[in-house]
Amino acid sequence: MGHQQLYWSHPRKFGQGSRSCRVCSNRHGLIRKYGLNMCRQCFRQYANDIGFVKANSKWSSGASCFH
Asked: Which positions make up the signal peptide (predicted)?
């Protein structure tokens, strides 16, 4: 058996190698919470489109309150 037949031939059913970002297919920095399955870079890019609102923190300059 040559290298081409053996390279990436092991089944990836679980673990980090089995999951990838649904936008860019990246495997690093994956956010799986709430079924997002997006890498952190794509999440920052599309967070507003998805409906996430940045929470008010002590470092933010605006004093907005959501009721």
From this structure: none
